[in-house]
User: Fold this.
Amino acid sequence: MRLSSLADYAVVMMSATARHCGGVARLNATLLAEETGVPLPTVQKLVSRLSGAGLIESARGTGGGFRLARPAAAISLADIIEAVEGPIAMTACVEAGRHDCGHEDVCRVKPHWNTVNGAVRGALAGVSLATLSNLPLQTNPAGTRVDMALGAEVMN
Assistant:
């Protein structure tokens, strides 16, 4: 299984977004394109898809841009991939309405593909954006540490 270029770019963009603004500040598409090397039209296309999937929030106008819709720890690799690719499925035969396999009537594997798909999705869901971005703990002026992935204070 290989991710499409768009899904790969979406993961790179989301990781950079998490590192850059920690879900608090707004980031613009031009800056993200420059930082990641993803072409600006592709960044804009993916911002639209990721926003539609509820993974980022965007605002137009002065002070506009986009940011994570929730903490990086609450966004999984599966969420990002599904926002771009649709449901995770290793084969097309398990998709509703698909009957384009010549072996469908005699296939003994088809009933098991949903289990396989669930296992793959579960593995991807177990990897958070916080892990992918490797967000560090930062100390705020009050001396308490803030986990940038969770957006929460951590006991010293």
In short: The longest strand covers residues 56-59. Residues 72 and 130 are 5 Å apart (CA to CA). DSSP finds six helices and five strands in the chain.
